[in-house]
Design goal:
This protein has about 190 residues and is an alpha+beta fold. Helices cover about 30% and strands about 35% of the residues. It has helices at about 5-35, 155-180; strands at about 50, 55-65, 70-90, 100-115, 120-130, 130-140. Strands 1, 2, 3, 4, 5 and 6 form a 6-stranded antiparallel sheet that branches. Helix 1 (about 5-35) runs antiparallel to helix 2. The longest helix has about 35 residues, at about 5-35.
């Protein structure tokens, strides 16, 4: 079946636009699902629910002058008195006895804990009754904040690289198809 050149051009452009639209839709769906999986559980008043009656409201990190280890401040809100033990998560790599701090939380209380820095993160493990709850805290302003060019590759980096490669390949194929279609040789040739 021979189509006039203008219809062939329209068909090539339409297919290219359709392929790009489908790819963007699939990437958007995949990214949305990944974001929904990593959302922290929060209660109605805000914060992360550690266990029934205990909520982690806020965390902040204060490094020491030399840029080494520092202090992690955790603000808890408890409905009633609860014993909470904090363990320095960064000290796991060093082995031996883990630094810990135990405190009874009632109402809103801020607990400060010296922590060991591991890369761009510090953290503690919160232990209360039968619950073990990890609290990682990313240190802001570090060189690892940019996921595309610094630090270890992430899933977002993979998606960006894949989309860029696909879009570049599609652009080249579309350009070659358009060039071959617009040549006035009188005959349309197959691109792929």
């Amino acid at each position: 079946m021979n189509l006039p050149i203008r219809y062939t051009r329209l068909l090539a452009v339409g297919c290219s636009v359709l392929l790009v639209g489908i790819t963007v839709a699939f990437l958007a769906i995949g990214t949305g699902a990944a974001t929904a999986q990593t959302t922290n559980q929060t209660n109605q008043t805000g914060g992360e629910v550690v266990t029934d009656g205990l909520t982690l409201v806020n965390t902040s990190y204060e490094p020491v002058e030399d840029g080494g280890n520092g202090t992690l401040s955790l603000t808890f809100r408890a409905d009633g008195p609860q014993a909470v033990t904090l363990y320095d998560a960064g000290a796991f790599r060093q082995g031996g006895q883990l630094p810990s701090k135990t405190k009874v939380i009632e109402g809103t209380v801020t607990v400060e804990m010296p922590v060991t820095r591991q890369g761009n993160f510090v953290g503690v493990t919160v232990v209360t009754g039968n619950t073990r709850y990890a609290v990682p805290h990313r240190i802001a302003g570090e060189s690892g904040d940019s996921h595309l060019f610094r630090g270890r590759p992430t899933w977002q980096d993979t998606q960006i690289a894949g989309l860029s490669g696909f879009a570049g390949g599609l652009l080249v194929i579309s350009g070659v198809a358009y060039r071959r279609v617009t040549k006035d040789e009188g005959e349309v040739t197959r691109v792929l």
